[in-house]
Each structure stands twice: as structure tokens, then as C-alpha cells.
Amino acid sequence: MKICYYPGCTLKTKAKELDRYARASAAALGVEMEEIENWQCCGAVYPMARDEIATKLSAVRALDYAKAHGGKLLTLCSACHNVIKRTNDDMANDADIRARANNYLKLETPYSGETKVVHYIEMLKNIVGFDNIAKKVVKPLNRKVGAYYGCLLLRPNKVMAFDNPENPTVIEEFIRAIGGTPVAYPFRNECCGAYVSLKNKDLTKRRCNMILESAKEKGAEEIVTACPLCLYNLQKNSDNALPVVYFTELLAEALGVKND
Amino acid sequence: MQRIGVFICWCGSNIAATVDVERVSEAIKSEPGVVFSANYQYMCSENGQQLLRNAIKEYHLTGVVVGSCSPRMHEATFRKAAEAEGLNPYMVEIANIREHCSWIHKDREEATEKAIILVRTAIAKVKLNAPLTAGESPVTKRALVIGGGIAGIQAALDIAEAGFEVDIVEKNPTIGGRMAQLDKTFPTLDCAACILTPKMVDCAQSDKIDILTYSEVEDVKGFVGNFKVKIRRKARFVDETKCTGCKICMDNCPSKKGLNEFNMNLNNRPAIYIPFAQAIPNVAVIDPEQCLKLKSGKCGLCQKKCGVGAIDYTMTDKIIEREYGAIVVATGFRPINIDKFNEYGYSENKDVITSLELERLMNAAGPTNGVLLRPSDNTHPKVITFIQCVGSRDLTDCGKPYCSKICCMYTAKHAMLIREKYPDTEVHVFYIDVRCPGKNYDEFYRRACEQYGVDYIKGMVGKVYNQNGKLMVQGSNLIENEQVTIPSDLVVLATAIEPEPSVRKIATLLTASIDTNNFLTEAHPKLKPVESPTAGVYLAGVCQGPKDIPETVSQASACAAKVIGLLVKDSLKTNPCVAQSDESMCNGCSQCANVCAYGAITYIDKEFRLGGGKTETRRVAYVNPAVCQGCGACTVTCPSGAMDLKGFASKQIMSEVEEICRK
Questions:
Q1: Fewest Cβ atoms nearer than 10 Å: which of A45, A170, B225, B262?
Q2: Which residue blocks in B269-322 are alpha helix, DSSP H?
Q3: Distance separating alpha carbons of residues A59 and A55, to the nearest angstrom
Q4: End of a domain among A93, A121, A149?
């Protein structure tokens, strides 16, 4: 099975492992991730400014490309996923943004949110199926892992429609599928401090320590995340109570393709 | 040819500012049939009505059109004025040029054009009007109150006081409702049971009130003054006439695992039980889900122990049928389900409780005999945090968009009572706004803050989690602009309230309208707050909207006044605008009866003369004019065009449409 894939800039620089392990695992699961042509920056946080159109355009180009190539767009970085999915929602439901973005782009057929944006975790759950993954596990994790969702995957709930933002369970299901024992801890859906670390490192550090210590207290041996920024903060702005890795790394490990 | 008078109302500036009323009356003057056309500042005023009456007399008018506000507002006013001058009231038509015209348009030119068209349309209709006479129907002098909480109790007592018979139908085994579960009441802090139970006893002792507990309304037929109601008397397995309430059965029952609903499931009760000490009737009931005898046939202990032979395991549900003139709906509320609010951890932590659960924990007759002990380990909580607006004013899909209205006051009450009884306890309250309008209400809240040292924190709570046996309440303090985490022993959620869900079924049975939040709709938000839009049905208490006890009691008494006003009448005028079938065209196909929501249409076999001495017998529709509500559903359904509505005949509607389309 082929699916259009949008990596995003961080996955080509700071978060290469997130991307590499995802590709290796997907191949092992029979999914071909086809990187879309000439992709540009998703727009990072700028498209969230309601009155700004130009910064949404790159996301719409990627979405429009996927519309013509299978109708689905796979994302991996939490931030790209959030930006692209919310931009897609605007294109589907906000007539003003839709009209202005299409006026700029002058596409052959105007784009109005037809593409389905799928996060890698959602692909594992809904397209591959956790049951099928469990069957392909060659090296079960056999350790206690805490899922760290952060905020971008879950919120705003109505648009992201990813999981219950107050009590998410999908990454726990994933951990179970690859033979680990999920550890639920209260701060798994809290913000890591995000970009505030640029301005107020102490605050970010307080939050990251709170998250890691809470997970450690509940018995977690390591933390997984899907977000490069969360990973950065949890590693660089904390006292490193627990190791933090991308969820794709554990998937690759369990499928026996980590060193591919 | 009719002689029609047209009166255009300015409604002060409401109409006149947008519609050129002078031009409207001028334009109408030349309409065929119009013999008089005028405009006036306020047609509904004494002088305006006099203008209409004088014109009827002077110009011998046979029809009247008033261009004014909605007919819902003043149709009755003008019909009455016309009737006083000897004109049949159904010869008056209203052209709504306010709600349908001046209020919704800005352009004066266009609005004036539209007003002229609307008035012409009403003229077209009135030309085809025929005088109608209202019939009469008798009034059954007995009222039904659905729900035996404080609203139902108060309404029943007031109706009985006026000398009319009342039945209270309550689905639970006792009357008393939510108020019976409360500990103290704001703002006076008097004990709820002390003020409620005397009223319950009054109901039981009144020879005018019949209390039907453990019963539900099954079916309602009829109309104002003449309701026929089927009531299901659920099998209690205990003979109400024999049981003395001695409780020997309760003491001997071996099945003690049933959840005690009265104590919000905080403890257990036997399978045979009396909900609480002051229950009315003070009669036991068997929970068939828990009773060993009913489930497996083995046991029968209560029957052996009962000294008066009241236990009857063979009892079945019975349907009784009664007639009423008026119905009061007082079905009350319940706290919403808060399982979806994962951030507060209600399902995971025993020590996160709702306010109604706290009421039971504070109540001397509750599971802890009034000693405040937290559910997890029965210890005294030293730090208690209240969270307000749990599910109220909530625009996510988890809660309700409205304000539940009572939570600010009961939370202040809880905080104050706890500080009073246990001064060593620290009490925090998270709030969005504190809303305490009402007599002595704001003073009450201020006492909680100032006198009792309750710590009010403006801000919402994001998370409650368990850490080393403490409930960590993480929220924001908006005044201090900081994040706070309060380690607490007990967390109390001021849970939103919603109408008791059974109200949906009752609303359907009564054809009473209900809003998106399941609250019953009143006939007018300001001027008819206790009447349902369905004649003869009245609303009391939270089934109509969130309200506290004083407001509920006021509304219940207002309902009683309306019911008494109805029941003192021997007969009621019926609406003459009802459907009628033209027997010569009717083929008895039954389609009209199938769409009639009121059951007004039946079929009769009638003999028709065919000429030449021959006859034939055909089945034709017959409309009971006392039951028909004039909705018109049958007239549009009738394939042969036999069915027509008096006052709104098809040819009248068509002439209106033609008039609107005329260039």
C-alpha cells in the first residue's frame, strides 16, 4: 500500500531518527511512504494567525498534491500534523479562508479540504491495525513505557479528533501492541513548555521535570513521544529523570528493523 | 360583497419608523371591498379599539383587517372589540406588519411595499371568512400532578386547598424528590427535611389528594378540561393498604447488596426497603432486581416475618385510567453524568464526589450519620476543594451550555457548613464567576468569604490527579496570574443539573414542546412562564429551567392558581377553527386519521341517497370538534380534498397566495 507522506523540515534535520525508524517500520508493515514532491515548510505556527493567508499556502499545496495522489496525507511530526490538519479544516469549513487561499493558488480545481490528514499513529491503528502489528513483532519490548502525548496531537479536540484529550489511550494501545507495558501517569497530556523554553528556560524545566518525575513515580522506564519539540525539551530542559525516545524507534526495535 | 375596514397601527415607532403607514392606508383605500381605511398610533390602546368599534358601527363593516403586530399578541384584543360591536370575532384578520415586516427590514421603501402586500393578503382572506361560533366542552374538576418533589407537592397542596381533587403521580416509591435528599437549604440554612416533611404529611392527610407513588404516566388522550390518562402502577410486591412501615422485613432481608439510591449509591440497602425514615407513603417496596424470592424462588423471609401479611410476590403492574381537567408537569432534575470529565478523575478516585453526594455525607440520616468522612478510607478530610461549573456553561460536548443557577449558592452553603462544623478544615473554591442574585443571596456568599474564611479562587481547574494519597487539584488563579496546585483530601464537583430524562416521554404524551436541553418550553418566556403551549398543561420546577427551591415553590403555586382558574369553570369555549370533512367527497381512505396527532378523527358508516329511491352506505371521516386542535395536517393529506379547516380553508389560503403573487 502506498501513501503520500509529508515529513517536514525538523525530520530532515534535528529529528532524523523519527523519520528513519518510521520508514523502516512502515516497510516492514507493508506500507510504502511516498514522500510528496517539492514539499515546503508546513508553515509552523504561523498559519494559526486567523487573518494570515500566505503562510497557509504551503500546507494547502501539500494537501492538494495528496488529493490527486490517493487522497490521504500521512504526517509524523506532531507540529506539522497539527498545522496541516487545522489548515485542512479551515479549507473545508471556513469559506473566507478557502476563497482567499484559492485566489492565491489559482489551482486547476479549487481545494476545499478533500484530503484526509492521517497521523502515523492513526495509520498504525486504523489502516494497519494494532492486531496486525502485534503479529509482526519479533522482539517484544518487555518494559514499562510511558506515553507522552503533549498538546499538539490532541488539541483542539474538535479539529484534531485524535483521542480524548483528557484521557487519551491510543499510544498506550500502541505500546501494548509492541509488547510493552504502558504506564498511565497524570501529566501525559500536559504541555512541555514548547517555545517558551526560548524565553523562560526555568519554566520549561519545571514542567519537563514534573512530567518525567510523575511518569517515573508510576513506574515508567522510558518515555515515548511523537513530537520533536517535546523530545528536545524533555531531553535538554530537564534533569533527565527518564530516557525519552520517539515512538517510531520502539516500533522499529520491536519489528526488528532498528538497524536497517 | 363584504364591507371591509382596514386599520394600520404605528405601534409607536416600532412600525411607523420603517413603514410609511400613511401610504399604506392610502394605497389600501382603493382596494375593492374596502370602505374604510385609517391609521393610528396604538391600535391596541383604548382609543384605538374605540376607533375600530366606531368604524364598525358607522360603516356597517362586515370584515376587519388590522395591520399590526403578531396575531399571537393582539388578535384576541381586536376580536373582542369587534364582538362588542356585534361583529362575529372570526371576521377579524391580522396582517402582521411588525414581526414580519418593520422589525426585520431596514429599507423604508421596500418595507412599505411589503406592508401593503401583507395587508392586501389579509383582505383577500377576510373576504372568504365566514362567521364561526365557538362550541363548549365540560371541565373535569380534577387535576393531575406528574412528579412528587417539592414542586408537585406545593402545586397539589394549593389545588387541594381550593377544594379540587388532585392526584400526584410519582415514579419513585415515595414523594419528596430531590429536596428530601438535601441537608440544609440556602440562604437560611434551615434543615431541608424539617421544612419539607410537614408538607409531605399534609399531602398524605389531605382528603383531596391521592398519592400514587411507584407509578408512571403511560398514556394521555384528550384536551384541556378533558384529559384521559392511563397510569401504570408498578408492582410494589407490598400491599400499601396493609403495610405499617414497621421495617421488620428490612431487618430480616438477607439480600443487602442493592445500591441505596436515596444516598446517591454511597451505601447499600436491603432488597425490601423504605427509601428513608420520613417516606410518604411509609410503605416498603421490593426491588425485583435484588429480591432472592423473585429472582430464584428461594427465600420468602419477609413474607414469613411480616405481621400483617402485606407481602405479595405475585403482584403485577396495573394500569388504571383517570380523567383530569388540568395537568401540572413537575418532573424535576438529576445531576448530569460526569464520566466524560476525565480531567476531574471522578470515576478513578473515590474521594472526588458530586455536591449531591456531599449532601448525603453531611446529612444526619446519610451513610455516615452526618459525620463528614471521605469515602475512600472514612477519615476526616482536612483540605477540601470545590470545583464549580462542572458541566455548566460548558460549550464542549461533555456538558451543558446553560448556567445551572443553584451551584454557586449550594457550594457557598457547603463551604460554610464545613467551616462551621469542622473549623480545622481548609476549604478552597474554584469558580468562573460567582452568581448570587436573589434576596439575601449575595450576603450569604459574602459571609462564606469574609466570616468563614473560605478561600475563593477565580479560575478553572485543568486536572485532578492522585499523588501519594493526595488529590492534587491543578488550576489557575486568574487574579494572582499563577498556576496553583492544591493537595486536597476531598474534591467536590458542583455538577450541572439537567431535566429528569423521563420528561421526554411525558412531553411527547402531552404534545408539550421541549427545547434542545430537554427543558419544557413555556408558552411565553415573560408573560406565560408557567403555561405550556399545550392548553391545560402547566410547568413547575426544574423541568422548565434551572431554579432553586424558593423559585420552584413560587412557580408551583402559580401553576396551582392557573389550574384552579381552569377548574372553577364548568365549561370551556372550544376553538371553532377545526377540521371538517365534506362527506360527499370523502372516500374513507383513513389517511387523515393516520396523520392526526390528537386522535380526533374516526370513521362512521353513513347512508347516502343516490336518487331514484336508491341509497348507498359509505364509510366517511368524522372529526370530533372538541378534540381537533386545528393543526391542518389532515387537510393537506386528504387526497380527495374533502377535508378542510374552518377559518383556514384551502381556498382562503390559495387566495392569500394569489394576492401575494399579484403584480
A1: A45
A2: 292-296, 301-305
A3: 8
A4: A121
Measured CA to CA, the distance from residue B362 to residue B590 in angstroms comes to: 61
Residue A121's nearest CA partner among A180, A89, A81, A85 is A81
Measured between CB atoms, does A186 come within 8 Å of chain B? yes
The CA distance from B104 to B330, in Å, is: 37
Burial (CB count within 10 angstroms: exposed 0-12, middle 13-18, buried 19+), residue B304? exposed
In chain B, the residue whose alpha carbon lies closest to the alpha carbon of A203 is B483
- In the numeric block, which cell numbers belong to residue B228? 384521559
Strands of B374-508 (E only): list them. 383-390, 426-431, 455-458, 461-467, 470-477, 482-488, 490-495, 497-499
Q: Which residues, in sequence order, are bridge partners of residue B531?
A: B538
CA distance B471 to B493: 13
Distances (CA, A) of A11 to A226, B88, B625: 11, 84, 77
What does CATH list as the number for B579-646?
3.30.70.3270
Minimum distance, in Å, between the CA of residue A30 and any CA atom of chain B? 36
CATH 3.50.50.60 fits B142-234+317-332+505-567, yes or no: yes
| DSSP β-ladder status, B643-645 and B190-191 | unpaired
- ipTM value greater than 0.90: no
Give the residue from B72, B93, B99 showing the smallest Cα distance to B14. B99
Nearest neighbour of B342 by CB, restricted to A166, A214, A217: A166
Record the pTM.
0.84
Last residue of a domain, one of A121, A148, A171: A121
Of A164, A187, A214, the CB nearest to B342: A164
Closest CA relative to residue B414, chosen from B364, B460, B454: B454
